[in-house]
Here is the input.
Amino acid sequence: MANEQIINWYPGHMTKAKRQMQEDIKLIDLIIEIVDARIPLSSRNPDIDELGKNRSRIVLLNKADLADPNASKEWINYFEKKGIICLEIDSRNKGSLSKIKDMVLDACKEKIERDRKRGIINRPVRAMVVGIPNVGKSTFINSYAGRACAKTGNKPGVTKGKQWIKLNKNLELLDTPGILWPKFEDPQTGLKLAYIGSINDGIIVIEELACNFIEHVSKRYPNCIKKAYNIEDDNLEPYKILEAVAVKRGCLLKAGEPDITKAAKLIMDDFRAGKLGRITLESV
Here is the structure.
């Protein structure tokens, strides 16, 4: 069995961001929470449930094009049973966002009706967009708005401060920095977040991460790694699989030895890019 890394990461700016969100929540009608469809539960910040009490909620399963479609259907049912509207999207594909306008109106119909009875007509719905680092929050905002409104990047921590974005006369979005939470109760949560890149690779032993990933994914999708890298031996331990991948892909040191670090990075990059197939790492 691979050694299980204990991952905790809570930079000081996240404490500040959480305090700011506690203030901003008073200004909004709706929370749109972006999660990663490959780990819908582990990529949710539990603080958002507390912050968002008494607010309408939408959960968007982003990067659904990389996730197992059957698993995504189960997760949509899971959230809807909790009274949370849920939709799977690919934030880079504007077509997948077409249903969101109606979902926003549906989620806020009680608020809109209250405004109407008070004689307030066409006051825009104000929605806060939340999500942990690297789930595609800024890409979603830019794609939905049809213009570059929010900074994007493939590393966590790109969005630094809040930003109001007026989409149309009916909807305004508040972009917020991605925040994690101070302590992962389950070490597996930290690992899953590291797999998808929500925790900076610079603080992680990438070889151990890749071994944990190989062990995890092989239980759910037994042929995934073997098929992707043309490995024929069915009985290899994770580290031996790393060695085999290094040889297959020409990741070699000067002495001809397998470059385990390079192979580990390759596997994690391939997973994050969807090159290992459509994979979901947790079940309802």
User: Anything to note?
Assistant: Strands lie at 30-36, 56-62, 85-88, 125-130, 163-168, 171-175. Residues 206-220 form the longest helix (15 residues). Residues 35 and 43 are 5 Å apart (CA to CA).
